[in-house]
Write a structure and sequence with these properties.
The complex is a heterodimer.
Chain A: E1 17-20, E2 26-31, E3 37-44, H1 58-65, H2 75-84, E4 88-93, E5 98-105, H3 109-121, H4 127-144, H5 148-160, H6 183-190, E6 199-204, H7 208-219, E7 243-248, E8 255-262, H8 271-282, H9 284-297, E9 301-308, E10 316-323, H10 328-344, H11 349-365, H12 370-382, H13 389-398, H14 402-412, E11 419-424
Helix pairs in contact in A: 1-6, 3-7, 8-9, 8-14, 9-10, 11-13
Chain B: E1 7-10, E2 16-21, E3 27-34, H1 48-55, H2 65-74, E4 78-83, E5 88-95, H3 100-111, H4 117-135, H5 138-150, H6 164-169, H7 172-182, E6 188-194, H8 198-209, E7 232-238, E8 244-250, H9 259-270, H10 289-295, E9 300-307, E10 315-322, H11 328-343, H12 349-366, H13 370-384, H14 388-391, H15 393-399, H16 402-412, E11 418-425
Parallel strand pairs in B: 2-6, 7-11
Antiparallel strand pairs in B: 1-2, 3-5, 3-6, 4-5, 8-10, 8-11, 9-10
Helix pairs in contact in B: 1-7, 3-8, 9-12, 9-16, 10-11
């Protein structure tokens, strides 16, 4: 197998400009003049881990409200500015981070950064919008209750992260927590956002120095002495028995299931070995061994694949499948069998070789767009991987052994002690 | 070679070829487009084009099905396919120095698909399960009802997945015959975009595809939908807690001179959106008229509109999610107000200019990646018979006047040429099952 054609095209220390601003924001910029567009991708260190369980969904509610008005622009004026130039700007929250991204023509970058700064530093959370957004969230939670995929995912995290672990709660909240959130809660929650350890990446048709200067102009003065410490999630306990539950949703013709475990954090030493194990199990070549076993060989399911999240904490490692209701048990047995195999038996030399090649090629493909490049740079910064991470990546993947893969699988997976949620008809 | 750098040629067997170099990333994308989709189907075999697409992943003598996914993944690439009303498209995106594998695979499966009877049966389960997945969605169920009310004659009346009964009865030979009839070079367009040398790429395509014999001429689809006189309404009473209202109007085909004016109408009413299926640009659309009239007024939790590019006239559809505590009547009334305003010509120059700027920006974003460029070229060629449609996209858009937009809005939003659908939730019950 030959290496990617143009290794010099990998973003690295030579063409990523990195600057730390005095207030703690790290700005990274990379130029691409092949189209007149530019993307900004940023993250702030706050998230749903900061919300009390009885107010689950607070961070998400708060982030949905950030763009509902600023001290300079009402909601409709703000969006008129953004949409009027064909640009987009969005904010969202997860467990550990708030993320935002914008896309515009390069000529409009200064305006987009100023609007971003307004939204971050001077949101007003108008009362009428609090209620309007609350209504939208309630409608989406009611729709969720009838969606087999969403309900299987929701029940799964409850089973896999018991005893009050924050990963066991829905970041979107629940029908009984959203009504309990007040505007005051939203306003207070905003005080969690600050510049310390924030990351902003600019990729596109703008000179890198210019990009850094524009970010500094827009956000260099932002301070928040009350910003809390960086969040960390507690360890997740290994499951010791099967924990199974069925969510009954009558009238559906397909069942969805999620079977899985707490997985490795990004910083765990066996993270990449676990990624390879996951790929072999349920990703490579249209869903790996699971795809072969469940989808092709037995025509059991429309889809069946595995995913490993691996963020700041012990994110889930799970198998997801959509199956005919009468075939749920058969699918579960097949999935458990494949999990047993990846834990008990070493993967083959061929599997190792082809999955290494897959990982290396995927990296090249992910750099096709400005968004892809920005995501990669953001990842390097948020997990302290170093600007040469993409350049080192191939050697790092090639160094992973069959023994490491099996060990990583055994560290997290267990065919006899798992969380399983099924959602569908009887 | 064209002035914009695109090589366009037709091989002796009728295969159209479009090639464009793009060197911003070491990636290439190869596409083969077939001009066949659910539009070419008749009752009894609905869904067959989509099923054939699935079978095309089941292998040939040279590339057995269970090995191809591995081969592609092994070079870090990915491949996929889409079946729509009018077309079926296959593509590979790979590190540029590996794209030859994509060419070879596509040339091989244009003729050598095995259609193993066992694979057909196993895939029947998968296809039925895919349909079941769609049926889990209230919006999809409503869409299916709306289609069959809006179209009486034209094959667009059935969703691409096909009717359940047909998916239960289609045979291996039905599939194979469909494949052999439509998967011929004279019904296909090959597109290559990326970090490649165009001359070399053309040579490779000629070498791999040039020897495939042309097939018989493709049967014309000649089932035009008769004019509609009067509103049609459908109601679904099914499980769930959320109600939906959907409205569809007769719209223009892609090659129609007013299609671009209709995209401006769509942008003003429902917000800017891309026709490119590979688009990654999502616009917030919070300043569209529908958002302001339905969501900001707290009648709907969400609203979306859509124009779809098709060979024959299709529908312009809007679907709103009724907010908890509100009714379909209220939402429909608000929707009507917005549509009547559009139809009466109440459109400002400012709105018009904004829609044009949005369209320009979206087009720039969607021309960025090699896969979305590949999509545009093949899509334009397949739908309109010429990729000039893509080439002239911005010029045509800029040629649209405000008067055009007003005229088109009045013509399309005619109350006698629409279909209205309500999804009325019945809670957790099983109503409707006999």
């Amino acid at each position: 197998m030959t290496p990617p054609s143009n290794n010099s095209a990998l973003p690295g220390p030579d063409d990523i400009l990195r600057r730390e601003l005095n207030n703690g924001i790290t700005v990274l910029a990379r130029e691409n003049f092949s189209s007149p567009a530019v993307v900004v991708s940023g993250l702030l260190r706050a998230g749903s881990l900061l919300e009390p369980p009885e107010k689950a969904g607070l961070a998400s509610f708060h982030s949905s409200l950030m763009m509902r008005g600023t001290e300079q622009h009402r909601f409709d004026e703000l969006y008129e500015e953004i949409e009027g130039i064909g640009a987009s700007l969005s904010f969202g929250s997860g467990g550990h981070t708030y993320r935002f991204s914008s896309k515009s023509l390069a000529e409009d970058l200064p305006q987009m950064l100023n609007l971003t700064a307004e939204v971050i530093c001077q949101p007003t959370f108008p009362e009428e919008h609090v209620e309007r957004v609350r209504g939208q969230i309630m409608t989406s939670l009611q729709m969720r209750a009838h969606n087999t995929r969403s309900m299987a995912a929701l029940k799964f995290i409850e089973l896999a992260y018991p005893d009050g672990h924050p990963y066991g709660r829905s970041v979107n909240g629940y029908l009984d927590t959203i009504p309990a959130i007040t505007r005051d809660d939203i306003v207070s929650f905003h005080k969690n956002l600050g510049p310390h350890k924030a990351v902003i990446v600019v990729v596109g048709a703008v000179k890198a120095e210019e990009a850094v200067r524009l970010v500094k102009d827009a956000l260099g003065q932002w301070e928040n002495p009350q910003q809390p410490d960086i969040l960390s999630a507690p360890d997740a306990l290994r499951l010791t028995t099967p924990r199974r539950e069925h969510v009954l949703i009558p009238g559906k013709t397909q069942s969805d299931l999620v079977l899985g475990f707490p997985g490795p954090a990004r910083a765990n030493p066996d993270f990449h070995a676990a990624r390879l194990a996951n790929s072999i199990l349920g990703e490579f070549g249209m869903y790996g061994r699971l795809g072969d076993a469940v989808r092709k060989a037995q025509g059991l399911a429309y889809y069946s694949y595995s995913r490993m999240t691996g963020g700041f904490g012990p994110g889930p490692w799970r198998v997801i499948a959509g199956v005919a209701p009468e075939k749920v048990e058969q699918a579960v047995e097949t999935i458990r069998e494949e999990i047993r195999r990846i834990v008990d038996e070493p993967v083959s030399d061929e599997e190792l070789a082809e999955n290494r090649a897959y990982f290396k090629g995927q990296l090249v493909l992910s750099l096709e767009t400005n968004e892809g490049v920005a995501e990669s740079i953001k990842l390097m910064e948020m997990h302290d991987l170093g600007l040469d991470y993409l350049c080192r990546y191939a050697a790092m993947i090639d160094a992973i052994t069959i023994e490491q893969i099996q060990k990583a699988a055994a560290n997290y997976l267990d065919p006899d002690a798992y969380a399983l949620a099924v959602a569908g008809p009887d | 070679m064209d002035q914009d750098g695109v090589i366009k040629t037709t091989l002796d067997n009728g295969l159209k070829v479009l090639i464009n170099e793009a060197h911003h990333a070491p990636v290439a994308s190869f596409w083969v487009w077939y001009r066949v989709g659910s539009r070419n189907e008749v009752p009894g075999i609905t869904g067959i084009s989509h099923w054939v697409e699935h079978m095309q992943f089941k292998g040939t003598e040279k590339y057995p099905g269970d090995e191809v996914d591995r081969l592609i993944s092994r070079v870090g690439g990915h491949w996929n396919a889409m079946t729509f009303y009018d077309w079926t498209a296959y593509y590979e995106v790979m590190p540029a120095n590996q794209i030859d594998l994509g060419l070879d695979l596509e040339a091989d499966r244009m003729v050598n698909g095995l259609y193993d009877p066992e694979e057909v049966e196993s895939e029947r389960t998968v296809i039925l399960s895919e349909r079941s997945g769609s049926e889990n969605s209230p919006v999809w169920l409503l869409y299916e009802e709306m289609l069959s009310a809006a179209f009486r004659v034209h094959p667009y009346r059935v969703p691409v997945i096909g009717e359940r009964i047909d998916l239960q009865t289609i045979t291996r030979d039905d599939l194979y015959n469909h494949y052999r009839r439509y998967y011929v070079p004279n019904n296909a367009t090959a597109v290559m975009v990326g970090d490649i040398n165009a001359e070399e790429a053309l040579e490779k395509i000629e070498r791999l595809f040039g020897g495939i014999p042309a097939g018989d001429p493709i049967p014309e689809v000649n089932r035009p939908e008769p004019p509609q006189f009067g509103e049609r309404r459908v109601t679904l009473n099914r499980e769930g807690q959320t109600a939906f209202v959907s409205v569809s109007y007769r719209a223009y085909e892609t090659a129609h001179p007013d299609f671009f004016a209709l995209t401006i109408v769509d942008s003003i009413l429902a917000g800017a959106s891309s026709l490119n299926f590979m688009s990654t640009s999502d616009t917030s659309n919070k300043t569209s008229r529908l958002y302001r009239g339905l969501v900001e007024t707290e009648l709907a939790a969400g609203v979306g509109g859509g124009l779809i590019a098709t060979i024959d006239p299709y529908l312009y559809s809007i679907t709103a999610t009724v907010r908890d505590g509100r009714t379909c009547e209220e939402v429909e009334e608000a929707l009507d107000n917005e549509l009547e305003r559009m139809a009466s010509g109440d459109i400002s120059l400012q709105e018009f200019e904004k829609a044009r700027k949005q369209a320009k920006a979206l087009f720039a974003y969607d021309s960025e990646s090699v896969s979305s460029q590949g999509f545009w070229l093949g899509f334009a060629e397949t739908l309109t018979g010429s990729y000039d449609w893509f080439n002239d996209y911005l010029d045509r858009l800029m040629a649209v006047t405000l008067d055009d937009v007003r005229r088109v809005a009045a013509e399309v939003f005619h109350p006698h040429r629409r279909t209205v659908g309500w999804y009325l939730p019945t809670g957790h019950g099983d109503q409707g099952e006999l």
